[in-house]
Amino acid sequence: MSEEAPARRRQARGQRRMEQLTDAAAEVFAEAGYARATTNAIAARAGVSPGTLYQFFKNKEALAEALATRYREQLRAAHEKAFDVGYAQLPLPELIDRMAAPMIQVNLDNPGFKALFADAGMPERLAAPTRALHQAVVGKIEEVLAARAPSLPAAERRTTAVVATQIFGALLGTVVSAAEEEREIWIRELKRALQRYLEPVIA
Amino acid sequence: MSEEAPARRRQARGQRRMEQLTDAAAEVFAEAGYARATTNAIAARAGVSPGTLYQFFKNKEALAEALATRYREQLRAAHEKAFDVGYAQLPLPELIDRMAAPMIQVNLDNPGFKALFADAGMPERLAAPTRALHQAVVGKIEEVLAARAPSLPAAERRTTAVVATQIFGALLGTVVSAAEEEREIWIRELKRALQRYLEPVIA
Amino acid sequence: MSEEAPARRRQARGQRRMEQLTDAAAEVFAEAGYARATTNAIAARAGVSPGTLYQFFKNKEALAEALATRYREQLRAAHEKAFDVGYAQLPLPELIDRMAAPMIQVNLDNPGFKALFADAGMPERLAAPTRALHQAVVGKIEEVLAARAPSLPAAERRTTAVVATQIFGALLGTVVSAAEEEREIWIRELKRALQRYLEPVIA
Amino acid sequence: MSEEAPARRRQARGQRRMEQLTDAAAEVFAEAGYARATTNAIAARAGVSPGTLYQFFKNKEALAEALATRYREQLRAAHEKAFDVGYAQLPLPELIDRMAAPMIQVNLDNPGFKALFADAGMPERLAAPTRALHQAVVGKIEEVLAARAPSLPAAERRTTAVVATQIFGALLGTVVSAAEEEREIWIRELKRALQRYLEPVIA
DNA sequence: TATGAATGAGTGTTCATTCAT
DNA sequence: TATGAATGAACACTCATTCAT
């Protein structure tokens, strides 16, 4: 029809290729860790040749970065849902519920990502943005605390937010790596742990 | 003096070399992760040639294993101190105090080890015993719970022990990587978090 | 023309590469022996990089194995020609002629192979099949002896076959390493030696 | 007693060390071939440290050379016995007997040497003198032929001598590597083969 | 002399990346 | 765009040789 149709079709194909590749990378990285994963293995898993991989990604790091971006974007979207909440009014258990649920979902949708981005073998360039994201979560929790426990000194507020994030992160790992039939148990316990930790502060 | 003097001196030198090497390995592994660490870099850091490294360690894995063993042995000793406690009588805060302190100390003495042995790029042979150790901690906590919260159903007891261990591990990481002047704050918060989590169970 | 053309062309190139590499390996192995030959030297001789060598051969041993297989297959074909002979009827000189000719030809076509596969530095996995082949030759000669010298006791038959094979092998080495213009002389003498050794037995 | 006694004693000890080392080298070379044998293994087998080995031998090659020299000297002595024979008069079988016996004995006394010095992995410097020795044997046989078959043209005389030497060498290998209880059989067959080959020439 | 720890060049092999087709 | 053969810098590891003791 239009003369732009082939270009669009081409672009669509390119999009598909990139997804094939990032999906394959996600699998291979998850199985082997960043350092042990080979780009040839990723290309093979995606059903393309190594050359093709390098037409879409500058190098191995760029692949991981794409993965990280995809993960981070989903997380950011989850954050928005999680924190864009009239949290001032909610009772603590429900507050935690609403905050935790989308984050858990993202990690269930992206198994292995959490482990990957905690990997010691990861190049610093990739670890940094992940830490930034982590800090963003801490910041959000600080905001909640500021609203709900206004009398808490700033220093303690930060400490509390960091610890809550750490607890959340650690138990998130347990949830994600758990067998499906046990998952609910771990999710309930994750929430319970956060409640017990935050209750005396938020009251 | 004695004719055995040179042998003893040589052995002492060997001992020193091994320590130089494991120390260098600890540093390099901690900085780069297992997979990215190169044996030549470790040798260079220790101030010796690659050949010398291989006179003391069969291969890269053996180096990591030596490190793991050293770490595990210190941890095991810490466990003994931590759990060989008349815990039946102690109030919860002190119980947590006594359990946490030696474990924290070991990890402060061995910075980077915790991160290393969580590394996804680690050969399974080395990851497995570390997981076993983790399980042992869980088991110990279960024992404590059995003694102090006998009415808790077994399933919940296990869940609680696992979660307490995870919380401890996560916050231990924060403690170890914190600047020295902030460390006390994080240690206090670690204990507080555990207390709040366990209090409703132990009563 | 066809869409399969590039694939075919690629395969042809692969075939050529393998030949380049086995040829180079044959040269380098022959010059230096198995153990002193380096894979990098073989790659260089073939005009390719070390990585390319390893795209076609799993490791050094596989290269030698390919060579061994090529050699053995030619030898086996030669055996068939050599021994699939109505030998019951032929006079001894002609019998020897027919048996020796194809074996000699194979070794002239593959200079250095005989030496290589007698190399003490060779991995056992490769030496074993070569010994098996040697035994096969002995067995064939025993068959001939059984047919042509039925009164010879079995033990002596075997001894005679072994010795004939050894004589043949030794003089084959002389033939192969001789200057071309002298080769005929050595071939004639090889046959003469076998005749003189076997004549009193076969009568 | 005398002031030279300690020097002499020292020298005697040195002599013993050299023998320990060459003996050890003979074993290790025979087991592993020249290239795969390690000087450290040789030192260990001799019960000394690597440093000591290098106090007596400049390098690995020098060790092999010492071995070669020892072997060659024994062979030379054997030659003298073998060929310093009033061969003009002896009947062929006895002539062969006398020539073969000492050579066989040397090789039985030095198992593995023959194989070692035929090793393709051997440095040229060591292979050359061995070839020279081989040529000497050929020369001696030519002399015998000149005396016993004066009508044989020089060219044929040489050819015959070379082939006789090759046959002898090949079957010598069989003799040396045979189990002890079979050795006599192979020695007899060796002589028989030589007889049959030389009989028509020497008449 | 004797030791054995130390050396370091060199080996087989891998894998991120490029490029001719 | 896609291919996959080709590259070559690195890596883990070995071993002939040296040297402080």
Automatic annotation (TrEMBL), chains A, B, C, D:
The keyword Manganese does not apply. GO terms for molecular function: DNA-binding transcription factor activity; transcription cis-regulatory region binding. Residues 15-75 form the HTH tetR-type domain. Pfam families: TetR_C_15, TetR_N. Residues 38-57 bind DNA. Keywords: DNA-binding. It comes from the Bacteria. This is TetR family transcriptional regulator. The lineage of its organism: Bacteria, Bacillati, Actinomycetota, Actinomycetes, Pseudonocardiales.
